[in-house]
Design a protein that fits this description.
single chain; alpha/beta; eight-stranded mixed sheet; 19% strand; binds 2-phosphoglycolic acid
Length: 251
């Protein structure tokens, strides 16, 4: 199903279950790797992509995809957590994907949450993406408040990789991964919306009824920095892969 909007269109692919939607995302990622084996993937963390990464590992084990020449850039990282902290996004990626496929660890990049000069680390990250030739396929999740990566409502459409403060809502949502809410970092480094929109293809995965309202606003609401995911409609090649629950409020 393609939903036409006042400016551009966003492709919406709806599957009955989270498993099927996740398998579709894995197929799309594997497709991008097979089309360009030395290409660049933009990857995401959170609860949403876990099943998609499991499906991708399954495809790798079945010999359907080879990551040996791929480079990866993750969207974001908490500030203040060392790479080996159980809740760091670097740790998540190692555990959920990198350790189980044949990607070269030296070619996997996550923003450095311990950088002493954060501004410099951010511009370096942008330069590394550029030098790698740009991102072929960027995987995204969506926050309940419409955030993409840690670009919270109000983030500029042309924002670049930078330090951001997390909203109270995001801190509360992410507290489930920590022992207590006090341990959730208050700041992060995130690719900007401008950075994300430069990817050649974007695949946004949303699962569960809790995302239904955010998905509806992304597809049908005004294109506004107050709902960052709506800005994806300015991109020519975005697909929202949804399970039925996340698609529930689409007309
Ligand atoms: P989640 O987070 O996958 O843990 O729901 C998604 C996001 O905030 O982008």
């Amino acid at each position: 199903m393609t939903v036409e909007t006042e400016s551009n269109s966003i492709n919406v692919a709806i599957f009955s279950t989270a498993e099927e939607a996740s398998r579709e995302v894995a197929r799309r990622i594997a497709g991008a790797v097979n089309r360009r084996p030395d290409g660049v993937l933009g990857l995401a963390t959170g609860g949403t992509p876990v099943k998609a990464y499991q499906a991708l590992i399954g495809m790798y084990r079945d010999g359907k995809v080879d990551f040996s020449k791929i480079r990866t850039f993750n969207l974001d990282e908490y500030i203040g957590l060392p790479a080996d902290h159980p809740q760091s996004f670097r740790h998540f990626m190692d555990q959920q994907l990198f350790q189980s496929i044949n990607v070269d660890p030296e070619r996997t990049f996550v923003p450095d949450g311990l950088a002493s000069d954060v501004a410099q680390a951010c511009s370096q990250y942008e330069a590394m993406i550029r030098d790698a030739g740009g991102i072929d396929l960027q995987l995204l999740g969506i926050g309940h408040n419409g955030h993409i990566a840690f670009n919270e409502p109000g983030s500029a459409a042309d924002s670049r990789t930078r330090q951001v403060a997390l909203t109270d809502e995001t801190i509360e949502n992410n507290a489930r991964f920590f022992e207590s809410i006090d341990q959730v970092p208050r700041h992060a480094i995130t690719m900007g919306i401008g950075t994300i929109l430069e990817a050649r293809e974007i695949v946004l995965l949303a699962l569960g009824e809790g995302k239904a309202e955010a998905v509806k606003k992304m597809v049908h609401g005004p294109i506004t920095e107050q709902h960052p995911a709506s800005l994806l409609r300015r991109h020519r090649n975005v697909t929202a892969v949804l399970d039925a629950a996340a698609a529930r409020r689409l007309a």
